[in-house]
Structures are given as structure tokens and as C-alpha cells.
Amino acid sequence: xxxxxxxxxxxxxxxxxxxxxxxxxxxxxxxxxxxxxxxxxxxxxxxxxxxxxxxxxxxxxxxxxxxxxxxxxxxxxxxxxxxxxxxxxxxxxxxxxxxxxxxxxxxxxxxxxxxxxxxxxxxxxxxxxxxxxxxxxxxxxxxxxxxxxxxxxxxxxxxxxxxxxxxxxxxxxxxxxxxxxxxxxxxxxxxxxxxxxxxxxxxxxxxxxxxxxxxxxxxxxxxxxxxxxxxxxxxxxxxxxxxxxxxxxxxxxxxxxxxxxxxxxxxxxxxxxxxxxxxxxxxxxxxxxxxxxxxxxxxxxxxxxxxxxxxxxxxxxxxxxxxx
Length: 324
Ligand code: P6P
Prior knowledge:
By secondary structure, the chain is α+β, with helices and mostly antiparallel strands. 30% of the residues lie in helices and 27% in strands.
């Protein structure tokens, strides 16, 4: 099927969501993310030539050195989301406090994002990505910081983008996950992965084996069981590892360990959005002890252990980790 016969993201959303009053304005938010990702894809592709690789010299709220592309992508997505008219507040990995967008429309949304995930891979041309969790704004008036501290089970949609051998845009709503591929010539996304469901068979496991000795005994047993039955694939970019596992079957683990008792990955803009996508595609997301999306967040940048992907394998790993 040529791109000429494939629906664009815009047409798909109009057809799929047009009549659903519950999702009013959500297409404007998703199209803003799509536009931002188109700009970020160009920034990523031309970074080396345009001197945008490397670091800004700043350290972000995570205590991590800010890559120039981290800052650029954060600025890009804040701009397009704020301009959509349907976003009331933005939480961002690169920004310590929430960005409150005043005078947003009554039926507007809250967006939590990791604008560019996988920073350590930027300078070596390995796949990176962007991640977005979307909640409906509740209450009258402008959003407040507490508007962003919502459990993942209240998300209405989630989006991630993989900047890899192609740029793939995956959008999930209840029981509906679809992937679109960017045509760099036109800047349009075309439907290429309709009705994504995570395969029953788990082909891969993804974890940083360098942390093995830091894991507790029960978690080591879970990793050993996976090691003996599946191929190991680990890119070091959560979005790339998750996307492969979503399409081909797999499980991703970044458990708690002695160095990271709360885990390494962030709850609000990594674990919750990808956990939402996983569950809508028939998968699962756990801390190793509880469902990710049931966590009531206490702060914007809190971290969590993450076991994510094929439902049976997540459940088996959780059973070993938690002794349940
Ligand atoms: P490690 C990238 O910085 C990231 O946040 C995720 O994309 C990735 O899965 C993880 O960190 C990699 O962490 O400790 O294995 O380098």
C-alpha cells in the first residue's frame, strides 16, 4: 500500500475521534505533538552538521548534564503544545516546575513529557525518542501544580515518537494503539502500524546487565530466568527498546537496585505513558510489586522501578521479584 493510499494522522484522528465528544480537543494536542516531533526530527538529523550536538553546560533537575538537543526539543514541544489552545499545563523532564498555560479552553489537557529520551545516545547516532502522557484537565480556572500529579490510570491518551531508521509516531487511547511513519518529504505522518497488539510470544528481554550484581536476590532470579529463555536486546533508549518489544514481543526491566532504591526511570513522563500504551496493546507495566498506573504521584519528577511489556512475562517477573 503506497503512502497515497494510507490515511494521514490528521485524517485518521478526524475519522476515529471526530464524533467522540469525550475526546474534544485531543486531536489538536496530538497534532501539536506531531508537528513538534517533525521539528525535533529535523533538529536531530542535522545536529552534527549544525553544531547542536554536545552539552549546554547546564545540569537539569535530574542532576543530568543537559544535551543541547534536550533543551532544543523541550523548547520546541513547549511552544507547539502551548500554541495548541487545548493544553492547560505541561510537565517536562527538563523543567523543574510545571509550565502553566493560562486561558486554555475549558475542555483542555495536561501533558507530561520527556521531550528527548535517550540522551546518552544522541552523539553516537543511536535511536532516541519523545514520550507524552495526556490527562484531561479537571476543575475550573487555570491549572495548578497539583493538576499534574495524577495517577497513570487517569490518562486519556499517550504518545511516543522513535527517531530511528524511520520516525515512528505511536498514539494510544483506550484499547486502541496505532503507529504512523513520517514522510520527511512532506512532513506528514501516514498510518503504517494499525491496531498494534503486543505479541503473545516474548522474543526479547531488555535490561542493563551491568547492574546485575546490584540487584537483590529475587530480582536476579527474575533476570536469570529471562536470560535463559530469550534474546537480550538493550539500546539504552527506553523508547527504542519499548517500541521493538511492543512490535515483536518482549519485556523491559529497569528494577530497583542497591544504587537506585526508587529506580532510575521517571514515573510521570516515562513509566506512566509507556505503561498506558503497553496496557492498551494487551501488555502490562509494574514496579515489580504493583501496577505502575495505580501509583498516586507525590512529586513531578519522582522515579520508579519499571517492568514493562509482554503481560505474561511481566507477571512472571513480578511474581519472582515480589515473591508473590
Ligand atoms: P542506563 C536514557 O537516559 C534513559 O533514561 C532511558 O531511555 C534508558 O532506558 C535508560 O536511561 C538507560 O539507563 O543506566 O542503562 O544507561
